Structures
1.
Amino acid sequence: MSFLGYLTGIAFLLWAVVPLFKKDSTWISLFVEAEELADRKRRVYGNIADLEFDFAMGRLSEKDFKGIRQSFLSEAGRVIEKIEGQKSADIMNRIQSDISNLGKKTKHKKKKSNSKSKCSICGTENLVEAKFCMKCGKEL
Amino acid sequence: MADLGNILLFFLFPLSVFTALTAYAAGVTKRRGLLDAARRGAYAAFGVTTLAVLCLEYLLVTSDFSIEYVASNTNLGLPLFYKIVALWAGHNGSLLLWTWIVTIFSAIVAYQHRHKNNDLMPYVIFVMATTMAFFSVLSVFIANPFETLYQEVGNVLQEFAVADGRGLNPLLQHPAMIIHPPILFIGYVGSVVPFAFAIAALISGKLGAGWIHTTRRWALTTWGFLAVGIVLGGKWAYVELGWGGYWAWDPVENASLLPWLTATAYLHSVMIQERKGMLKVWNMALVISTYLLSVFGTFLTRSGVVSSVHAFANSGLGPAFAVFISISTVLSFGLLLYRRKDLKPDEEMESLVSRESGFLFNNLLFLLATIAVLWGTLFPVISELFTGDQITVGPPWFNNIMIPIGLALLLLTGVGPLLAWRHTSVETMKRSFGIPILGSLVLVVVLLLAGIRDGWALGSFAISFFVMWTIVVEFVKGTLVRSKNSGENFVKALYMLSRKNTRRYGGYIIHAAIVVMFLGFTGNAFNSETRAEVGEGDSFQLGPYTFTAKSIVSNTTENYSSETLTMEMTKDGRLIDTISPEKRFYFASEQPSTEVDIYSTLREDIYAVLSGMSNDGERVIVQVYRNPFVSLVWIGAMILVFGTLFAMLPNYRENGGGL
Amino acid sequence: MQNNKLKFIIGSIVIIAAVILLAIQGMKEDETMSYSKSVSEVKLLGNRANALTLKVNGDLKKGSIVRNNLDLDFIITEGNSELDIHYIGKDPIPDTFNNDMDAEVIVSGRLQEDGIFHAERIQAKCASKYEADYSSPEIN
């Protein structure tokens, strides 16, 4: 019986050690800055959704609502400009449509079949679920 | 089989050390091979531990009485089901269960993230494997469940087996006690996952919100299991221990409450970080504290530091735990201190009357509650250190401090969700709070007229009413707004509304559950009891009820002998129910056991205990308690489970419609 | 901004002070504070013992339990010291508490002038039965 125990234990150990001897590669870390920007974008969108909910539930006056909403929108604009690294003329329209699409099914979800997608900046192939390019860190 | 189990369990130690080392190295070098090896190490650790647990189960089921653990916790006559669950009836076995759950969670986390979070995962696995290594040392070298029985023959130690074991403690032969330990353990051990991610974020410097999103479900699950574990413990004490209550501020009960308090604080304060990027250091500290308090709870139960009725006998694990907790505390908080500059808040607090400030005060109160419970629990140790006298603080001290804190928190439960983020104007406050406050005041007047004079109880009823009102209004208002926009009928709109933001509405359901439980707690203010020595035909009175002893019967079964008193309970001459408390004496364990009988309604429990025989053996002493609202505690707990499950559902996404 | 911070700090201080006050007030009440002593330590305390709420632990003296209607008297020992206990509590006494058992008992209450300890609460520990030491020779 104890022989069986040693055999099983050692088998498990060996199985775990094997990857150490395989051909190795390293992964590249995501840019901290890119993640931070994505955090900020998520946060400001979440804030706008909450604000609209609070207003609909009658928790704040129309004046407060408009003022706070405006400041969120301009923050969203700043964040997105930073993410894209360039000024964009229609940025406010895009944010508006983003917001009205919050909580809705996104159409392109169905296209999961091809598992790679190319980064628009540097051309590196990434997993389609990836939020950032693994080489240059740009949001996909 | 014992050898096999022992050797398999032994392999957990080198495996967890291997996993920890390769995981750390993977984090530093970012080499995929190392990370793969660490991941396999986690799976392998789970593999050997599972096999070892199966070996122990085999020994328990086949009643191998050469094993001390089997002999101490089971006997031949024990039903199969109890033989199986005896895995966690004793000290060494339950420690193995703890260790096993750690390996299960490590394997799950390693598998869930096999294709993602490469920057965090090495350190996550490292932290979990370190915990695993510590528990494997305890399980293998200090409290090994595969230990065989020895006796001295001449000068030689010899293995031997006893003919029959000592049986399972009768107190543990109860459904609530059977599921209570694993559920509580899952809650305790679950806290290691958010902790591991937090530490991984600190080590790797990836301090964004990533680790918080990743561990949201884990944190909620852990919290839910802790809550259910605590309530089940109370339920078990209530039906099994026979003193008429469910909570006594016993050190072991407190130990389970402590991590729950910090976990609750975290679930709230994390929302400020998500919305405003504030309190980053504080959230880290809460996650770390929850984990440390979970380990501390295990330590308190097993070390004999504080004496408790529930505690395992002093087991020699104390020093090992003390060292582990100290090192973990110093390292985690040291790391947090080291990274504090990277955890600066993004925004400032804007107004005292806002959602975030509500959360802030909620956290302050939870923190104070944690400190108070910790202080009271450890007071015997603290006082002995400074005065030489071991002084125990009793339940009144805890109640004196925890009832006000509890009610303040309950009040915030009602106020907080009605405040808008950032700033709430006075006008909208008046609109939101006017009617519920008025309603509560009316209720207080009615209750005063009904003759209720207990201040805390009046406060609790008023606040409960207020909170319940605000929760219902939240649901109704949201539904009406939605149904106006989408044209759905009320029920459909209600369902869609809550499914679209499960965390918010699951949270409200949990709040409602807490209100129901608080009503149950408040019932304690109106408890009454009586004690009587009765013979057949005697009767006595408690409140509006008359109890008449009909028969006192002795009985002997294979397992135990018993005395049963059968009483008729009448009110205004009408028969309500027959109540028959019982006293048993188990032969195998030579243990007496009290079987209480409870007549339970929503309004009150009538709880009867047979406390003993009179000297002549003709009459019995019976104790009857009248406990209002106790059922609400258990009902509230069930609502809480529902709310927690609901909050874990993914948000429903739809093709159109706004709110 | 400064004004806001101040409000928070004041609010927090008020809450913290209130809780500390409750804690101290609770500590002052004798009833909630009990001194853990063994039987021989109680004897050493002398007159001081009468003023304190005590939690005394000792071994139940076999055969010393006397019941009389609802009254209960017994003796706990530690080495050669003995303490007479009179139970005045309301809760049912624990299961492990009877004349045949070796039980370690913790009684909470006050020592009276006549040297009899009036116990309000009895806890019996019966750890000896479970987690027992099988290696002791008496088992075989």
2.
Amino acid sequence: MFSFWGKGLLKGLSVTGKVIFRKNLTEEYPLVKPNIPSQWRGGFAYEKDKCIACGICVLECPNDAILLVKEKDENNKNVPKEYKINLGYCLSCGLCVESCPVNCIHFTKEFESATYLKKESVLDLFNNQNLEAERSTYGKPVEKKEEKEEGIL
Amino acid sequence: MRTQTYKINLGPQHPSTHGVLHVVLEIDGETIVGSETNIGYLHRGIEKLAENKKYPQVIPYTDRLDYLAGMSNNLLYVQTVEKMLGTEVPERASYIRVIIAELMRIANHMVGIGIYIMDLGAVTGVFYPFIQREHILDLFSKLCGSRMTFNYMRIGGVAVDIDEDFIRGTEIFLDQLPKMLHEYHTLVDENEIFLSRTKNIGKISKSQAESFGLTGPNLRASGLGYDLRKVAPYEVYDRFDFNIPVAYNGDCFDRYIVRMQEVEESIKIIRQAMAQLPQGEIKAKLPRIIKPEAGDCYHQAENPKGILGCYLVSDGTPKPYRVHFRRPSFNNISIFDEVAIGHKIADFIAIMASFDFVLGEVDA
């Protein structure tokens, strides 16, 4: 085999030449939304009726991003009065969601969390529970298939 | 004719510095006669921050050290805490950790190789490995919900069990990866421009590499096959059959070729680990509040970029008294000032890129 300067270059070009005819991998993002996996850690949803205001999420948060104000209701039980998550501090680590004993805080599949003003990055989850957003399964117990025993009665 | 040397700043906002590295080069015409590396532009004080966090709360911060290999940093930190507590990790969790860490190694080397080629001027070369890295990040985001800052490892195990989808996805990925590696070798290895810019450029001898404390692929390219996965196996690495790729020339080309070969070895390890994957628990039972006894502990592991070490001091409270990370990139770039001398400015870019360092890790 004879060799000349530029042989390797041509060999490399042959690879790029083949790749041109492959399928496109890029997504046209604002027009086509990406497929978000089910465990996604993005936005938050909060069920204030379920919350027992125990404050474990506040303790678990590494960055003090969660503000919880609690009060006593008529049965002398703790209930939340205010619940805010500052996304500017949030690391999306998921420790709050994992630690919640009553599963009242959830991740959602939202991912476009940029805001125009700084104050908009604080989520007031008590007044806007964000329940309609599609929820992620992160940190939630695996739902076991219900095995009903039939035929006993 | 009377000439004089002059100084120029390379960085901290130079696009080829992989972040914010600042190098003051003393130039005689085009040749470097002196060099001074300044760091600290990305210092976030992670070690100090960790002193105010409880042990599990430090894990998300370790993602931000070497942000191209978050899983490996997670792994090292939790291993150190486990060593301190004397916890036995369930076997399944150990296997999962090995699979994840090796996938992370592939993803990291894909960036390392791709960016290297791009810094040499071949922008096309960056996309082939990045497609592969994207597959891995997709797998990880399906597994733990995040693409870069995983927070996946837990003290005593892992956060989420891997499922059938993950295993199938990994198998599909591993099946097509060798094809891509072959394609990439064809694209790059014989390219005359690439060869003339990398062969015999930035040569580091074995003794030099040792004395500067280089680790990882940069050390192994200089002829010393030192890899903690073989020398002091952690997790279940001793159960797998794999080689440590070594090159002997110590130049930029060798650092590239060692990374490419390491990817192939990683494929072997993942395949073996998936074949042996046992059933069982993924997390050891630990008290809710983790309180190691007063004392200190050092642990190190082979990260994609070199040996990452963690030194932990506990005073018996739920928060660490002191956390220190031995970051491989920091040690690796310490040789720049020595190796740059005598090279041209353009070669210095090639040398820098071949080291595959991350400033998040250098400054911590």
